[in-house]
Structure prediction request, 223 residues.
Amino acid sequence: MSDAVTARRGLMLILTSPSGAGKSTLTRQLLQNETDIALSVSVTTRSRRKDEIDGVHYHFIDRPAFERMRDAGELLEWAEVHGNFYGTPRRAVEEALSAGKDVLFDIDVAGVRQLADMVREDMATVFLLPPSVTEQIARLKRRASDDDAAILKRLRTARDEIGHWADFDYILVNEDIARAFSELRAILHAERLKQRRRPKLEALIGELGRDLDKVLEAGRLPS
Ligand code: 5GP
Prediction:
């Protein structure tokens, strides 16, 4: 396909969920199976978990460094979650989008609200829900990185977050991970075809129009 047909501005695919809905698994699967989308790697002041890699899952930085970035306007959005700071570095996102690359964000409800005030047209927002609280707690316990008090804290945040479900473009209920994954992929593929993301199609539309005019003026089909 020619560039004019495929070229478009990159899409910001935003995946948000209360803790324990299965967002990390879905994010990992999407990044493994879709080559043309990259994760926006956030900065955070939270300490690194055993299975996390600096620069891959997060950029782990200390509080003064975070405040420096935030005050210099280097963060597109930021939020405090469970006593830690999280933020999206601006430059990497802007470079990817203007190069026509898609970016996946794993950010909280407060972050989504900040982005929506700035770049709503570039965004597609997805809210992922667990099928039940029993399943949600089972997932949080399986993760084994948090004690009961920490899990309760996450559930308290979840209680607030689910109230924002209606602000999102798409809602997925993660009853079955394979199904949720194929639904997320379908969202990505459909959003890529949105008319407003494809300004360069104007050239093709012009060409189709001129060629149709020629045929119609001739009044007969070309041999
Ligand atoms: P966790 O500590 O479990 O990795 O993340 C806690 C919460 O912070 C999750 O809801 C995650 O989506 C959110 N989060 C991670 N990075 C960012 C970010 O850059 N900005 C905002 N607003 N939230 C983030």
User: Anything to note?
Assistant: The chain is about 45% helix and 20% strand. Residues 3-39+102-218 form a domain with the Rossmann fold fold (CATH 3.40.50.300). The mean pLDDT is 93. The longest strand covers residues 75-81.
